[in-house]
Amino acid sequence: MSTTPIRLACLDMAGTTVADDGLVLAAFSAALDELKVAEPAERERMTRYVVDTMGESKITVFRALFPGDEQAAQEGNAAFESAYGERVELTRALPGAEQAFAALRSEGIAVALTTGFSRTTADALLEHLGWRPLIDLSVTPGEVGGRGRPHPDMILAAAARLADDETRAVAVLGDTASDIRSGLAAGAPIVAGVLTGAHDRATLTAAGATRVLDHVAEFPALLREQARPLHP
Prior knowledge:
This is HAD hydrolase-like protein. By secondary structure, the protein is an alpha/beta fold. The protein has helices at about 25-35, 40-50, 60-65, 70-85, 95-105, 120-130, 155-160, 175-185, 200-205, 220-225; strands at about 10, 20, 90-95, 110-115, 135-140, 170-175, 190-195, 210-215. It folds into two domains: about 10-20 and about 90-225, 3-Layer(aba) Sandwich (Rossmann fold); about 25-90. About 45% of the residues lie in helices and about 15% in strands. The strands form two sheets. A six-stranded parallel β-sheet has the order 5-4-1-6-7-8, with helices on both faces. The chain has a two-stranded antiparallel sheet with strand order 2-3. Helix 3 (about 60-65) crosses helix 4 (about 70-85) and helix 8 (about 175-185) packs parallel to helix 9 (about 200-205).
């Protein structure tokens, strides 16, 4: 049970609050085409790495895929962002996401969205979904010196803006192991996983999730449950 009242909820975008129906992987595939990665086994290896590291900053992923080749990493990242941007109108809000934002804010909990996307892509998503009035803040790796997940920097930045730097007043929700590791590294007392995205229950639990939910719609109730005092 959280002893400090939760004042800030940090939620991931793709896979947690946004349904993109495989568009992240489609955009990575387009980036590999742009980089002329044609050998099937190599593409499979890279795709597996992308799935395993889903939620991390995209430029960080490309640097890992093309170690020592910054030009290829930058070109791959640019191709990914362009390909995803071309498909952004295919994205939609996951069921219950907008209702969860409203429920959290009605209870005095600020809502911040964190993402591994660039600011350009995050803004395109927010604009397409009409979410700007529904949230208090969005944070991308570029706003925290490029250190995306699993580093805690985006959550810490949101806490500095919306929770007086008090990370014990933060709850985190995400669909990947990197979301979970980021929340734990930030010191958030509630770091929940959700099963609508990239990683399964076993992966989220192994990463240290304090709870695993089926849908984002369950998140406000989890925070209410955690805030409820225990009776002797």
